[in-house]
Design goal:
The protein is of the alpha/beta class. It is built from 14 helices and 16 strands. Helices cover 42% and strands 22% of the residues.
Length: 367
């Protein structure tokens, strides 16, 4: 069957009508669309520049880092190259360098988002999705591997309530039950004879799951805490909770599992529709249960991203109800490619930029 623009538009708009509460997977591509320095390539360059001076004279660490560099030269894949790291000391150095890099960028763009100088690309999309949440399910679950807090700044800027499992004031501890209470409001009902009762309802909101940690989360006094005051310049006696490439084999990750992954796992069990934004499918923490849902359970999904890759292509061929919207560049001008395996070939829209989430929202989500 031939895929036409009319069919693609109908199917994609129907996805949001039938699935008002999809699990949204927010990838690094969204941060990179604001500034490419948020990407893995820049992190790799930063590590190559700064790790050697941090491990000088430490023979074991120098040997491990030499193996990392050799692996990078061989295949240019930071995730796999970091598997050559054998000691937790070197991983801690990598976490510190990565955290400092993203923190410097986060501080720069925090001010620009709050001042209105720039707009976070997904702002309007999330506003639409949250406003349209059904009364029976007033939470939009969003999962992201991003360390930065651009999404949080944007949610605050456009007044979307969100929770992330932490609660408190300055020094926040992890507790989803308490966090949920932050978005509950009471409505006063006056019954017969003047009797008053209060009914508690959740605000329409976002549940944000940061499965790789965040700039404002730390391992401090033997627990994971959140402290926004430390985001850009943390004290020496605390450790950032960031799952960087190579960390997964270390026992320390088990200390963070409850805070980073457990609640997301519970939510994932209930979901049968997925929206991927700027996500390249290179993360086992997020995908290990999503892939079977798309492939064997034939759940519905939409990928909106600038760049296609071999991982996405493979998943598309194995998933009956997965759509891809990505960039097609012809003669220096960017258009759109759309694919679903139920149809014979790609749909090319040379005058559209639907891979741009702002254009996608305007064209297919509407007011």
């Amino acid at each position: 069957m031939e895929l036409t623009q009319a069919i693609a538009y109908k199917e994609i708009t129907s996805f949001f009508q039938k699935n008002p509460t999809p699990l949204v997977v927010l990838g690094t591509g969204i941060s990179c669309s604001i500034d490419g320095r948020f990407g893995m390539s820049n992190l790799k360059d930063e590590l190559i520049e700064k790790v050697p001076s941090s491990i000088k004279g430490k023979i074991q660490l120098e040997k491990e880092w030499t193996d990392v560099i050799k692996a990078l030269i061989a295949n240019n894949d930071l995730e796999n190259a970091m598997n050559n790291v054998k000691t937790e000391e070197l991983i801690n150095i990598v976490v510190k360098i990565a955290g400092n890099l993203i923190a410097s960028l986060d501080e720069e763009f925090c001010k620009k988002i709050y001042s209105g100088e720039i707009e976070w690309p997904c702002s309007i999309l999330f506003k639409r999705l949250v406003d349209r949440l059904p009364e029976s399910d007033r939470a939009l679950n969003v999962v992201t591997p991003n360390y930065d807090m651009l999404a949080e700044y944007a949610f605050e800027k456009i007044k979307i309530p969100y929770i992330n499992g932490f609660w408190g004031n300055i020094y926040k501890r992890f507790n989803w039950e308490q966090s949920n209470r932050l978005i509950r409001l009471s409505k006063e009902n006056i019954l017969k004879r003047g009797k008053i009762t209060h009914v508690w309802n959740d605000l329409k909101h976002i549940n944000l799951h940061k499965v790789h940690g965040s700039l404002n989360t730390f391992w401090f006094n033997d627990e994971v805490i959140e402290n926004n005051l430390w985001s850009w310049d943390p004290p020496e006696n605390c450790e950032r909770v960031l799952v960087t490439p190579g960390i997964s084999k270390f026992e320390k990750l088990s200390h963070f599992r409850k805070e980073l992954i457990l609640q997301f796992d519970k939510i994932l069990e209930t979901k049968d529709s997925f929206l991927f934004i700027g996500y390249g499918f290179n993360d086992t923490h997020i995908e290990c249960y999503i892939r079977p849902k798309l492939k064997t359970q034939k759940c519905n999904g939409i990928i909106v991203t600038r760049d296609d890759n071999v991982r996405i292509q493979k998943l598309l061929k194995e998933s009956d109800n997965l759509w891809l919207i990505c960039m097609e560049e012809v003669s220096g001008k960017s258009g759109t490619r759309i694919f679903n395996k139920q149809y014979d070939d790609w749909l090319y829209l040379h005058d559209k930029q639907l891979w741009n989430i702002q254009e996608f929202t305007k064209e297919l989500i509407g007011d």
